[in-house]
Write a structure and sequence with these properties.
Blueprint (H helix, E strand, L loop, with lengths): L19 H39 L6 H22 L7 H6 L2 H36 L12 H27 L6
Helix pairs in contact: 1-2, 2-5, 4-5
Length: 182
């Protein structure tokens, strides 16, 4: 089919024209962000392993380990969302795609990306408001360690904002039909 509707489901969209600089910038940011995400996952696993060993073998109380691991996992999860989306790596239902024509799939993907974008805009906005409240009011967790809650909220808000930008780019590419040859 003409008009770029032959794009296969599950393959990353590639921009052209005015959207190309934004796509390149997001690709660059996503690749850079993945290194700390991988390190955060490794650190969380090491911290939790240490916590288990320290409590079991040495009867050492652990106060900071669980929350630190959660903060690392929150950051890694939210920051890696845009990278995974850029690769079309999220779980999707391919059975429907196989039953629809290329044109129907094109409109289905516009709908799905539009709803996803709207959800992520709301989630980003709410995350930034949580971050602001935690920052201004000095909220901390209820644990004995009591780390500042602006830390996980800032990671969540930044990661969701990056995912929102990624979805906006993909929706714009799909709506304009301007894709580079693959």
């Amino acid at each position: 089919m003409s008009g770029g509707l032959e794009h296969h489901i599950g393959q990353p969209l590639q921009a052209s024209g005015a959207l190309l600089p934004l796509e390149r910038a997001l690709r660059f940011v996503n690749r850079i962000v993945m290194v700390p995400c991988m390190l955060a996952l490794f650190a969380a696993a090491a911290i939790l392993s240490y916590s288990v060993a320290a409590r079991y073998f040495f009867k050492i109380p652990t106060e900071w380990q669980d929350e630190t691991a959660v903060f690392l996992l929150v950051g890694a999860t939210f920051f890696s969302g845009a990278f995974v989306q850029s690769l079309r790596g999220h779980v999707g239902v391919e059975a429907i795609a196989g039953l629809l024509s290329a044109r129907a799939n094109h409109f289905r993907m516009i709908f799905v990306e539009g709803v996803s974008f709207a959800f992520c805009v709301f989630f980003s906005w709410k995350s930034w408001t949580l971050f602001h409240e935690a920052w201004v009011d000095g909220f901390t967790s209820n644990s004995t360690w009591g780390p500042a809650l602006w830390i996980p909220y800032s990671l969540m808000a930044s990661g969701m904002s990056l995912l929102t930008l990624q979805l906006l780019l993909e929706l714009s590419i799909r709506l304009t039909g301007k894709r580079s040859p693959q």
